Amino acid sequence: MSGLIEGIRKNKFVVFGRAGMDMFAGPVGTKSENAEMFHADLGGSSANICAGLCKLGSSSALVTSVSDDAVGRFCINRLQKYGVKTEYVRSVGGEFRTSLAVYESVLEDFQNVIYRNEAADFQVTDADVDQVDYGSFSALITAGTVFAAEPSRGSTFRSFENARKAGIPIIFDIDYRPYSWPSAQIAADVLTRAGEQSDMIVGNDEEFGFMAGGIEKGMDMARDLATQPGRIVIYKMGHEGAVTFADGEEIRTGIYPVTAVKPNGAGDSFMAGLLASIAQGHELRDAILRGSACASIVVSKPGCAPSMPDLYTLEAFLASQPSPTTT
Questions:
Q1: Which residues pair with 119 in a beta bridge?
Q2: How much is the pTM?
């Protein structure tokens, strides 16, 4: 585990995965079909993680492709606005398009409409990942969506090889989105392969259960993956908190209850808060709780990237909260 923690604490992350445009209905409580106004901002799991890291004082660079059009340029501009390095973001022509998510700040019958036909972010190539200066970063992060199609599947596995050669750890957010994959079996096989090559694996009970062939088998799969020396596996269980497997220990942590206005964005904010907190010197258990606090903050506000907390917001939230709870 020391090599993984050491890499995270150097606080320079290269992140693989998609950037997209989010459009969320306003005001809070308005269903998308009834909205007269939508707010636009950065979206996409990996882009959100990048923005969350930067807002908490870490350094992040995104490796992805966006469409060579106004929407792609919007995403690049928003990444830069949040402080994310974009030298490895490539614009692609033709009919490839940057992903669009249209959603609302509503919990009951929440709707998130995703447009990902001919997704530009799947066009990341071996040449794209080979130009990354891995030695200038201290850890690699990827979200599982990149593995759903070629050429980005193969190129991201290639980036794992490059990271290994450079001696930097690999952090994997399972992030299973069924609509992106050609079949459930391919997804289970590929995501398992990615997990087996990673130093930190973060996922929820449904994701581990899916990979294991049944939700009742997910905890055992997480525990088995954690038997690899130096690996950390975080098994999230929603309102029941999380179990972290590290160095033969099982660390159980709770959540910070809030009045949520939407369900999405929590996982991205958790990852950013976890890694930034480890980088700032917090012990693993405390860093997990701080990640959970970031997740709670994000679901209590509209949007994803714009609702990621900065360090001041996170500390103020923690100071106002009682001890985390489990159910």
A1: 97
A2: 0.97
